[in-house]
Amino acid sequence: MSVLAIIPARGGSKGIKRKNLVDLNGIPLIVHSIQHALASEEIKRVIVSTDDPEIARVSQQAGAEVPFMRPNELAQDHVLDLPVFEHCLDFLLQTENYSPELVVHLRPTAPYREPIWIDEAVHLLRTRTEAHSVRSVSEPEKHPYRMFSIDPEGFLDPIMKHLHPVPYLLRRQDLPKVYFYNCVIDVTRPSTIREHASMTGSKIWPYLMQAERVIDIDTHQDLLYARWFFSQMG
Questions:
Q1: Is 84 exposed, middle or buried (0-12, 13-18, 19+ CB in 10 A)?
Q2: Could you give the maximum distance between any two Cα atoms of the chain, in Å?
Q3: Of 69, 152, 157, 228, which residue has the fewest beta carbons closer than 10 angstroms?
Q4: CA-based nearest residue to 102, from 24, 30, 217, 205
Q5: Is the model's pTM score more than 0.85?
Q6: DSSP alpha helices (H): ranges in the chain?
Q7: Domains of the chain by start residue, with CATH
Q8: Residue 53 CB neighbours (<10 A)
């Protein structure tokens, strides 16, 4: 069965200029995700969706396919993942009559993944037939039971008060397990994208990861941490 990896990588970025091409451990950031996909036993095709000629060239040199250039209207910073993935799947269906069994979404901003993690996440969705998708999650450092908004009168308002009257007073050992989406691995069904018009659907199965192994580069500080992280691996 064919498993397709799609790596979305537009040319524009606000936090870090040309982020997807920034050097990390001697190679462009996007190449890390391409290498992860190519090393996976489950993934059979790796496609980069980009509007940027330089990203396209670097991606092809790294072993990914770039069968189209993403339309400009799908490369703006407000565009969500769904239309980008719909465009890619529609293109492959129309030009090749190709439709994958599963779609793996690898964000180029996550430069550290073990290929076995990808394979395990794919296996989860394949065996959990009732699930619409799988997403990698980790336990947060700061628990939402201890988070507040500020109400119109200026007072702290606990955001989890609907689950506990005073959630911020619970002992650490009494706090329920919660998880955050860490942006490392998504696996979804083409039917979830096409029929549910969603990247996840409503039935999302978790792929659990240790938080200390998660890197998601959004800021310059994230990039500095990633460079330190890779320096420690050698």
A1: buried
A2: 59
A3: 152
A4: 205
A5: yes
A6: 29-39, 53-61, 81-96, 115-127, 190-195, 220-233
A7: 3-139+179-233 (3.90.550.10)
A8: 11
